[in-house]
């Protein structure tokens, strides 16, 4: 890839239509190129618009590249960005693409929810939720069972002797 030949290449450079390398990667349906470009410049403007106001997400939605759409959304592309005609990626894609985008956004929302940690505790202790509590309970039960097993099978009281 071009980035290997020239790692300092400006991936945000534009052509006469204000298209960036991300636009072209989306236009070609290349998830690998999107990943490489954003790896080379994680702060790249993922929502850069061309002259018509289309973003890389618009292009991927227009051409029904679901894997590219998913990658861009997972990396923070905003589905609400409108082009010059007032259309979002939801508008420029077909019905199945709109459904796909909605499902990906729901999945992202669920993942963010599951990763949240209650930071209200000022001592810096994280509150266990869901699976964490279940794992903790199972571990406690196992420890108790092991201790009971050891007590039953190996612990013998010391004989007491009475002085004469």
What does this structure look like?
This protein folds into two domains: 2-115, Serine Threonine Protein Phosphatase 5, Tetratricopeptide repeat (Alpha Horseshoe); 119-158. Residues 118-123 have low confidence and may be disordered. The protein is mainly α and 164 residues long. It has helices spanning 2-5, 21-28, 31-40, 56-62, 66-74, 89-92, 95-115, 131-154.
Largest sheet: none
Measured by DSSP, the beta-strand proportion falls in under 5%
- How many H/I helices? 8
CATH superfamily of the largest domain: Ankyrin repeat-containing domain
Percent in helix: 40-55%
What is the number of E strands?
0
What is the second-level CATH architecture of the largest domain? Alpha Horseshoe
On the 0 to 100 scale, the average pLDDT is 82
- Measured between the Cα atoms of the first and last residue, the distance is 94 Å
The CATH class of the largest domain, by name, is Mainly Alpha
- C-alpha Rg, in Å? 28 Å
Structural class: mainly alpha
Order of helices and strands: HHHHHHHH
Which residues form runs of ≥5 with pLDDT under 50? 118-123
As for the CATH topology of the largest domain, it is Serine Threonine Protein Phosphatase 5, Tetratricopeptide repeat
How many individual domains?
A: 2
What does the overall shape look like? elongated
